[in-house]
Design brief:
The chain contains 18 helices and 7 strands. The protein has helices at 7-12, 66-81, 86-95, 99-109, 116-134, 144-155, 159-178, 204-215, 220-232, 236-240, 273-293, 315-331, 337-353, 364-373, 389-400, 405-412, 417-420, 428-445, and strands at 20-24, 31-36, 41-49, 52-61, 247-248, 253-256, 267-270. The mean pLDDT is 86.
Amino acid sequence: MADKLSDRTVKALPSPASGNRVAYDAEVKGFGVRVTAAGAKAFVLNYRTAGRERRITIGSFPDWSVAAARDEAKTLKQRIDRGEDPLAEREAHRAAPTVAELVQKFKEDYLPRKRPSTVQQYTLIFDNIVIPKIGSRKAEEIKHADIDAIHREVSKRTPIQANRVVAVLSKLFSWSIKLGIRADNPAQGIERNNENKRARYLSTEEIAFLLDALASHPEPASANAIRLLMLTGARRTEVLAATWSMFDLKAGVWVKPSAHTKQRKEHRAPLSAPSLALLSAMLGEAERKATEDKKAPSEFLFPSPTGEGPQSEIQKSWTSVTQRATVAMWAAAPDTAPGRLVAELVAAAERAAGANAAPRMPSYAEVVKLAEMQKVKLPPGLTDVRVHDLRHTFASILVSSGASLPLIGALLGHTQASTTQRYAHLFDDPLRAAAERVGALVSGVSAGPGANVIPLKRGA
């Protein structure tokens, strides 16, 4: 007959010669302590559910006292009476994927259908933020507060990026609901940071300085990628992933397949004469280098340095080029505070190098350092221009040349008129100029016989 277990009796239980033995409690049916041949002791509960005999481990002795383990056994029996299966739930939890495992499955099953830029963005967020923060935790355990904490932490450094992290996590957990891993999305309801959408357009002067900086950039491939962005208004990902098979240089057309465009539709874009000249020069150089290396030329306009796939990024080159162009702009305005700083650094470099040395333009970092020492606030110059602003600038040049919104949308590959509508305000100046011409004509009618009046034909 079973005795009521106590800490004293459990402690005194002898170990079996081999295997394990269970000593049951007289108070709670099915509750007992398992003793192994090695002397380890753990509390267990035997129960039946759906016609099956089950045994669940509560905890080890002496980490658990007999009283605490007995209370837990009573709680488990109440759950069993309600039709639950505690052991099955525990096993399911153990088998449930961690966030890192869910991310890996997401990368393998979901991301391959997305554009290369989307894959890159998601991968960076997963690898640099999500997995280091919550990768080891079970995906089913993540709560709204966990996502909010990540958002708040990232917001301290990069508020916009913090919003992107939440968006990626929301997509991940929405996908997990479809898999039956979760019943809810913990990333929903996170209060996002404000994003003030700005429009930055390069002036003619800024374009000239940017082109000069590109001419002296040490990486020709990145420089050509930026030039092609300026000449076509294409998206960065479209340019970097472009292959020579997409171009008909004789017809002067770039046919972007649906897999490469944001709108998932084929986009046929005409190429200007400068674009064709750039592409022809690039193709000639690619063929020359391939002959020199005795191998077939890459299918990509901008192949990766490793030779596998296309070049993935130009951000470092872009930062270098915009900083160099900014310093040149400041140097061209010697009467301004930044211009005086540049002149001071140039003079100091000439003194150090000697009179016969070639003049050297200071780096952006050197100008910034001197400005901090002299407490001079520097304007951004071109350092506030993003790569995507080249696309906006392309549109603004089209507007100034008299192109209509539908035409601009067609050149940019927009499928929704509302997307192109963002450039409508750029028509203010040409519309105002047109209105002024009408105003001048009407004013001339009442200005007397000396006015230059254009007669209007009847029925016009």
